[in-house]
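Summary for the lay section of the report: proteins are chains of building blocks that fold into shapes. Here we show the chain for Neutral zinc metallopeptidase and then a coded description of the shape we predicted for it.
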Amino acid sequence: MSFPPSAAAPSLDDLATIAERAFAALPSPFRELTAEAVIRVDDFADNEVLDELGIEDPFELTGLYQGVDLSRRSVFDIEGGPSRIFLYRRPILDEWAERGNVTLEELVTHVLIHEIGHHFGLSDDDIHRIEDEA
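The coded shape description reads as follows.
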């Protein structure tokens, strides 16, 4: 999905479609381990989330994982609902426009995979180290 320069900014639905395609392109074992997670696209994180994370500028948060990661789950846990992966449209679009060296699809895929990494129990440092080694 490409967007001509004169086109309106991609909508929430456009980003959701890109995220769905990115998820579908993941290897089957990753999709299976992430199948219960709900992927949601919002314009921004809500103020409560930003406050909890100590983030003042909502453009600084492109994605978020909420839930108990796979490495900390137990059969004795009380089910608290599905894990959720949030992608934030406006910060993603802002980063995409600023960078200019990646497609929107590549950036959405990157943010999605980063948040899936948290679902698997990886920290930001773990994820950055893996990216640096790739």
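Put simply, here is one thing we learned. The first strand starts at residue 38 and ends at 42.
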